Amino acid sequence: MKKSRGILSLVVTAALIALLAFTTTAGFGKTHTGSARNIKLGLDLAGGVSITYQVKDKNPTKEEMSDTIYKLQKRVEQYSTESSVYQEGDDRINIEIPGVSNANEILDELGQPGSLYFIAQTGSDGSANYTQTGSSGNTAEDFQLNKTLEELEEDGSIILTGNDVKAAQAGTREDELTGQRQNVVSLTLNDEGTEKFAKATKAAVEKTPKESIGIYYDGGFVSVPTVNNAIENGQAEISGSMTFEEADSLASTIRIGGLKLELTELRSNVVGAQLGEQAISTSLKAGAIGLVLVFLFMIFAYYLPGFAASLALIIYTELVLVILNAFEVTLTLPGIAGIILGIGMAVDANVIIFARVKEEMSKGKSVRNSLKTGFQKALSAILDGNITTLIAAVVLWFMGTGTVKGFAQTLGIGIIVSMFTALVITRIIIFAFYAVGLRSEKLYYRPAKERAPIDFLAKKKVFFAASLLVIAIGAVFIGVNAAGGRGAFAYSLEFEGGTATNVTFNEDYTIEEIDEKIVPVVEKVTGDANVQTQKVGGTNQVIIKTVTLELDKREELNQALADNFGVDAAEITAENISSTVSGEMRQDAIIAVIVATICMLLYIWLRFKDIRFATSAVTALLHDVLVVLAFYAAARISVGNTFIACMLTIVGYSINATIVIFDRIREELHYASGKTDLAALVNKSITQTLTRSIYTSLTTFIMVAVLFVMGVSSIKEFALPLMAGIVCGAYSSVCITGALWYVMKKKFVKK
Question: Could you tell me the CATH superfamily of domain 498-577?
Answer without folding.
Answer: ACT domain (3.30.70.260)
